[in-house]
């Protein structure tokens, strides 16, 4: 008879699987495989892993297992147990419903960040010191989440955490690691944020009255003047035109505009201040 881990055999007896040799053998195989894997941001104990391995092995061979009993001996609450079981199932590649970046971007309506999310995920795999499966939902969700953060694309955080199949505390721990990684390796992407992308716009052709699609090239964006440069150029051109107008006026000998006679009091004006000691000057003096 094959010798198994004492804890594994004890748990198997508690779950009623002590006589299922193929289940024990498969659970031991899964438990050894898990030792070579890294579960980021998880606090699953060794005891919990063994119970889940027995659960997964029993499911593979179609052996009935009571969920409440498995939850009891795992030391976890039922929602946590179900979530942890899903994580280990993905880690061990026992299911085919893996989530992809393209599918996640479509479901979250943020397809514009798909290319950046794929670059982030690929770079994370290169820089990681451990052998990880980047197709696991927690890594895929992290890549999309931080791609949205860089591009300031709004998404519902609770939805992406749910799709990652992690608890909020596990998500926060993994998020702290990814934030540092993304900030260190994708800082240049953040600087170019907001740069207009290539897109097609409708342009009205004045000659024939038809609408034509014109592709705006990124090279043309570089020709747009900064505001300070544009302002200086416009002021210089206006000053130059003003000087030219003054030169033209001088050449044409433009006469100055005459003043209104009302602004200068006349000597014979009846409204002139009376001379002191001589009385009032009459408008029509007598002969």
Please name the defining characteristics of this protein.
two-stranded antiparallel ribbon; 287 residues; rod-shaped
Structure description:
There is one protein chain. With 287 residues, the chain is mostly helical. Helices cover 55% and strands 4% of the residues. It has 13 helices and 2 strands, in the order αααααααααααββαα. Strands 1-2 form a two-stranded antiparallel ribbon. β1 (200-205) and β2 form a beta hairpin. It is rod-shaped, with a radius of gyration of 42 Å. Mean pLDDT is 76; it is low at 191-222.
Secondary structure tally: strands: 2
How would a textbook summarize the main sheet? Answer: 2 strands, antiparallel
Strand content: under 5%
Helix content: 40-55%
Query: What's the overall geometry?
Result: rod-shaped
Instruction: Write down the Rg.
Output: 42 Å
Order of helices and strands: HHHHHHHHHHHEEHH
User: What is the helix tally?
Assistant: 13
Unreliable segments of 5+ consecutive residues: 191-222
Strand order of the largest sheet: 1-2
Mean pLDDT: 76
Structural class assignment = mainly alpha
Distance between the termini: 157 Å
């Amino acid at each position: 008879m094959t010798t198994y881990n004492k804890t594994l055999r004890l748990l198997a007896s508690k779950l009623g699987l002590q006589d299922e040799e193929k289940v024990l053998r498969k659970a031991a195989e899964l438990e050894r495989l898990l030792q070579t894997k890294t579960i980021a941001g998880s606090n699953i104990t060794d005891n919990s892993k063994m119970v889940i391995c027995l659960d997964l092995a029993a499911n593979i061979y179609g052996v009935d297992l009571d969920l409440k009993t498995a939850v009891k001996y795992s030391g976890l609450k039922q929602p946590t147990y179900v979530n942890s079981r899903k994580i280990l199932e993905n880690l061990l590649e026992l299911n085919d419903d893996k989530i992809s970046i393209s599918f996640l971007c479509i479901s979250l309506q943020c397809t514009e960040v798909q290319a950046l999310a794929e670059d982030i995920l690929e770079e994370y795999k290169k820089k990681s010191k451990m052998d990880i499966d980047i197709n696991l939902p927690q890594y895929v969700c992290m890549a999309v989440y931080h791609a949205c953060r860089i591009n300031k694309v709004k998404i519902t955080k609770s939805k992406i955490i749910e799709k990652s199949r992690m608890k909020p505390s596990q998500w926060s721990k993994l998020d702290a690691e990814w934030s540092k990684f993304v900030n260190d390796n994708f800082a240049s992407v953040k600087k170019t944020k907001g740069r207009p992308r290539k897109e097609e716009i409708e342009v009205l052709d004045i000659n024939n009255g038809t609408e034509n699609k014109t592709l705006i090239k990124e090279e043309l964006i570089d020709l747009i003047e900064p505001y300070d440069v544009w302002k200086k150029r416009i002021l210089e051109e206006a000053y130059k035109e003003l000087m030219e107008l003054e030169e033209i006026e001088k050449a044409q000998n433009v006469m100055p505009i005459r003043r209104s006679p009302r602004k200068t009091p006349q000597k014979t004006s009846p409204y002139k201040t009376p001379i002191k000691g001589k009385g009032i000057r009459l408008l029509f003096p007598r002969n």
